[in-house]
Amino acid sequence: MTVNKKIVVLLKGYPRLSETFIAQELLGLEKAGLALELVSMRRPTDKKRHPVHDEIRAAVSYLPEYLHEEPLRVLKALWACRTKPGFGKALRRFACDLRHDFTRNRFRRFGQAAVLAHEWPADAAWLHVHFIHTPASVAAYTHLIAGVPWTISAHAKDIWTSSDRDLSRKLDSARWAVTCTASGFRHLQNLSGDKGNVHLSYHGLDLTRFPHFEETRTPRDGSDPNDPVRILSVGRAVKKKGIDILLRALASLPSSLHWRFTHIGGGDELATLKALADELGLANRIVWTGAMDQKQVLEHYRQADLFALACRITSDGDRDGLPNVLVEAASQNLTCVSTHISGIPEFFIDGENGLLTAPDDAAAFAQALQTAITNPQLRARLGAAAENRVRTSFDHRNSITELKALFEQEWEKPL
Fold this sequence. Notes:
Layout: E1 6-11, H1 20-31, E2 36-40, H2 51-55, E3 59-62, H3 71-81, H4 87-100, H5 104-118, E4 124-130, H6 134-146, E5 150-154, H7 157-160, H8 164-173, E6 177-179, H9 182-191, E7 198-200, E8 229-234, H10 243-251, E9 259-264, H11 270-279, E10 286-290, H12 294-303, E11 306-308, H13 324-331, E12 335-339, H14 344-347, E13 355-357, H15 362-374, H16 376-393, H17 396-411
Parallel strand pairs: 1-2, 1-4, 2-3, 4-5, 5-6, 6-7, 8-9, 8-11, 9-10, 11-12, 12-13
Helix pairs in contact: 1-17, 3-5, 4-6, 5-6, 10-15, 13-16
C-alpha cells in the first residue's frame, strides 16, 4: 500500500498572478490527498491574488531572497549543515558550478539551499521544485546536503534559457522531471541520461472556474463605428509576448475597420508599449487595465470578440510554452489569433480551431486579425472547435492524476 509523504514544494515566488497554472496544480494535489508545504525564494510583489490562492491550505515560508538581508539566518544554516554527510558533496558541486557561473546569484542559491536544508520540516520526505533553472539549482544543492529525493516541474523559459550542461546535470540528479509541452519534453528527453524519467503532462484548466459561456456573441464585423470589434490580450508586458508586434499589426489594419483593444497585465514594458501605441496613433482605441484577478479576466473573455497573443522567441531563447491564457480564452468559445511557436501548435491548428502566423511578422498577424474581425461566422466556428478541444482534452484533473501517480510510484521505491 502506498503511503503518502509530505512534499515540500519549492517555488521561485508565491503567490504570483502570472502563475495560475502552478496554484491550480497545488490545489489539485491537495484535493487529491497529498500533503504539501510551500517554500518560496521570493516574497509576493503582486497587489492582487487569485481566488485559488486563498483555497490552498499548505503552509508557506520564505527563504532569504538576498543573503545579506538575513545574514545570521544564513550563517546559522551553513554552520549547522557543515556536519551533514552530504555537505562536502554539495560544496564540490557548487565549486564546479561556480567555474561555469561565477555570479552572486550562484552564491545566493547555495545559501538558500543551506537554509532550506537546515530548516527542513521534520515530517517532510520529498522535495519538488517548479522551474528547472534557478529554483532547481537550490533544490539540487538541498538534495545533496539533506539527502532528500527531489523531482522537477519544468515549464518554458526555464528550459530554453538554461544551458544543456545545466539541464543534463539536474535531470540526472532528480528522480524524474515533468514538463507541459511536447517541444520541451523532446528537448529534455534528449538531455537526460534516462529518457524514461522525463514525462509530458499538459496543465489543462480547472473547468469549474471556466464554465461554458451560454450567451451568443454579437456578430460584429468591424463595419459599425458605434459597435467596434472587441480584441483582447492578456499577459505580462514582456518581450516574449510580442505585444509590440500586435500593436504594429493593429496599426496596419484598414482604416475602414472599427475595433477596440484591451490589454490585461502588468510588466516592465508597459510604459514603452503605451509610447509605441501613441506613436502609431492607436492610443484612443486601447485600454490598458493593468493586472486583474482570474474572475475579472473571465468577464473580459466573455465580453471580447477575439483574443490575440503574438508570442515570439527572444534573442536569449526565452519563450512561452502553451500560454494558459490561450487555453482559458478558448474555454470561453473565443477565437484565438497567435503564433506557431513552442506548444501553441500542440493545441491550435491554423484554420481549424484558431489562426496562427509566423512570429515577429506584423503583416501576417494583421492579415489574421483582419480575417477574424470581418468574419463573425468564422470566429464562431473556430471558437466552438477550440472550446471543444479544451473540454475534451485539457481538463486539469488529468494532469493531477498523472502527477500524483508519479509521486506514488517513486514512494514505493527505496530512497
